[in-house]
Amino acid sequence: MKAIRRFTVRPVLPDPLRPLSDLARNLRWSWHAETRDLFQSVDPERWAASEGDPVRLLGSVSPARLAELAEDRRFLRRLTAVVDDLNDYVTGERWYQAQPAGLPAAVAYFSPEFGVAAALPQYSGGLGILAGDHLKAASDLGVPLIGVGLLYRHGYFRQSLSRDGWQQEHYPVLDPNELPVALLNEPDGTPAQVSLALPGGRRLHARIWLAQVGRVPLLMLDSDVEENDLGERGVTDRLYGGGSEHRLLQEMLLGIGGVRAVRTYCRLTGHPEPEVFHTNEGHAGFLGLERIAELCAQGLDFDSALEAVRAGTVFTTHTPVPAGIDRFDRELVAHHFGPDAELPSIDVERVLRLGMETYPGGEPNLFNMAVMGLRLGQRANGVSLLHGHVSREMFSGLWPGFDPDEVPITSVTNGVHAPTWVAPEVFRLGARQIGAQRTEDALTVGASDRWDAVADIPDQDIWELRRNLREQLVDEVRARLRASWRQRGAGTAELGWIDGVLDPDVLTIGFARRVPSYKRLTLMLRDRDRLMELLLHPERPLQIVVAGKAHPADDGGKRLVQELVRFADDPRVRHRIVFLPDYGMAMAQKLYPGCDIWLNNPLRPLEACGTSGMKAALNGCLNLSVLDGWWDEWFQPDFGWAIPTADGVGTDPDRRDDIEAAALYDLLEQRVAPRFYERGQHGLPDRWIEMVRQTLTLLGPKVLAGRMVREYVERLYAPAAQAHRAMDPDSARELAAWKGRVRAAWHEVKVDHVETSATTATAELGTTLALRVRVALGALGPDDVEVQAVSGRVDTQDRIADAEAVPLKPAGAPDPDGRWVYEGPLSLDRTGPYGYTVRILPAHRLLASGAELGLVAVPSEETGEGAGVLMR
């Protein structure tokens, strides 16, 4: 029979055990071993049954056991020590508090998904895990962050397989009362709410759930409340589900409702108001509109409010392809804004102008969330060095006239939260070497460039650690595989073979990620006979553990999963290759440490960063990857292998896959497997162990989320906070008026004449030329512009590479025609083909970059030829 109503019955903890409830509600337990050990000791069997979730554990422990623990002095001493440690962690000074004054009082960090812990399943893949690691690292560093997301009642789907290997999706209902979250309440005890206006006089209401992530509050908006009609209740039903309007409403709730939730939280708790707003991908872009509306309500006009909002906004893009960006039909967006809907004080056309693709190659009727993010954020970044380059190319249409290298999008390479992803055994090995506190500091703050202490760990200890972790993975895989086959309809009698799946002494390769086509889940199957030979090699066998979810609407991705599963079902190889369904954080925490090789073979350059290989590396696993994302930036032969890419083989994807798969097989057969199996004089694989050591020494400090968050603080949050403070109402009005004046007058700005003291097309290194430029500025003056000489090496098409820009100075007053003369030296500081040009850019003290307005004036072809701008 089915219940007509559901309750969550909470246990009544004896007074001495009340602190357990507080410990369970702070998600620091998910990365703090002592807290987890304490909960495990409450009831080891129930801890395992609850899958390591303290809230579920406390809901299932018997009253008799609780009474027993309340009298157990040893347990109570441990409880007191863990509670004191948490209190010290959340209140004590950390890295951020030791920095010079001027950092933001608070930063609001918006993301559509957060992967903090398996017990809070509000993530689908890398974006969410990255966001969760960002919060955890910010907490470790003491950064005053407020996370903002949505609470999805079904989360992302759970994955199982049919008998023939087809992915099946399940959406379990999540009861917030059974999650490590609590409602944010008003002083009178009623739940705090935010609401959005919908067309036709309706409203979308949402409650605010609070998850405490160490020091960092995470606010999660939930539309499943009684005040909403059925349609509105379903807005936060599931992550990345539904059609266009459903997604638009989710993103309006995240951005606009999220700002209102932050204001409510700060009002109720006294938390400092954020000076910086960080948009993690475009989904939360509407937050800028809500902040503009706030300032308009305080008396600013739209243009001035836009400048004030931009100054304190950071936008991070995670996608390297236009298809990965949320885009909405113009009319759908217009329907949800304006007098009869949300933000009625803002002209709908102004809203639309922020997101429309009004640039060459754009779709003029589509509203692009990333484009809005870039127009609303004065600072923007990609998530690896290569992805920064790809992003500058992809969005260069927003800055016409500028080379992609000058597009104002920088990069901060992602990192991973080591305490979450490093196996306890790896941590203990480090603690044995340098002490627990130093190990913890190295993994969280990550202020050093190298972990040289790894050099002192004996080879034997490293090899025993790696085998121990591999053995744990084998046990985990067998248990999960057995459960998966049961779901697929197999009986116990059919599954005896699972006891022989994988071998703790065989080279183990891991491959786990989402399954879009560009990640090429099945590249390893390109030549099945060759793969079988590698798996079944008599002296140097391989074994592979694969996991991954295809998006529910992606039948192509599901076919890839099925293809892999069917190969892994083959009785000839099923002991050597397995597919594990329902990839998530809990599986990942076992998978990364237990693998010897982490495989990644995306189509370059479509992997923005990719962080799974980072998590593997922190556990001494070596990377074997295409040079894409972070691996393109940090690869060295000392600690891994690069799969060659067939970039020059036209655009035939089949040919490219054949070439790259063959290169992968060659690497595995000729380089990777021999190194793993060869033994030195002490019976150990000395060269393999040295690569593990180099991975930990050189990659370890780089791949930390602590390093990443420190970079965000120093390179983006601090400048954004300073710009925010400088942009008081008067400055905002001044900048908006100046931009309007410059845009209106720019058509009159021209480079009229360029001359130089060079008399020939060759010159000696070290020569300084005198440069003289005549420019027309129209209604603008020298205070509105900067005239620059741009010089550097030139290629065969006379394009300047590694350009250096030097400002020129006005020489006197304008001539009778209103032309200005600018002069300056040009130093020839490098040999070979060399060239220069001049250009005029808008200049104002409040601009973050000369490219900010996307305006530039350069010489015409005739002017350039007359100046003799090239020397060879």
UniProtKB/TrEMBL annotation:
<dbReference type="InterPro" id="IPR024517">
    <property type="entry name" value="Glycogen_phosphorylase_DUF3417"/>
</dbReference>
<dbReference type="Pfam" id="PF00343">
    <property type="entry name" value="Phosphorylase"/>
</dbReference>
<dbReference type="InterPro" id="IPR035090">
    <property type="entry name" value="Pyridoxal_P_attach_site"/>
</dbReference>
<keyword id="KW-0808">Transferase</keyword>
<keyword id="KW-0328">Glycosyltransferase</keyword>
<dbReference type="InterPro" id="IPR052182">
    <property type="entry name" value="Glycogen/Maltodextrin_Phosph"/>
</dbReference>
<dbReference type="Pfam" id="PF11897">
    <property type="entry name" value="DUF3417"/>
</dbReference>
<keyword id="KW-0021">Allosteric enzyme</keyword>
<feature type="domain" description="DUF3417">
    <location>
        <begin position="13"/>
        <end position="120"/>
    </location>
</feature>
<protein>
    <recommendedName>
        <fullName>glycogen phosphorylase</fullName>
        <ecNumber>2.4.1.1</ecNumber>
    </recommendedName>
</protein>
<keyword id="KW-0119">Carbohydrate metabolism</keyword>
<comment type="function">
    <text>Phosphorylase is an important allosteric enzyme in carbohydrate metabolism. Enzymes from different sources differ in their regulatory mechanisms and in their natural substrates. However, all known phosphorylases share catalytic and structural properties.</text>
</comment>
<dbReference type="InterPro" id="IPR011834">
    <property type="entry name" value="Agluc_phsphrylas"/>
</dbReference>
<comment type="similarity">
    <text>Belongs to the glycogen phosphorylase family.</text>
</comment>
<dbReference type="InterPro" id="IPR000811">
    <property type="entry name" value="Glyco_trans_35"/>
</dbReference>
<keyword id="KW-0663">Pyridoxal phosphate</keyword>
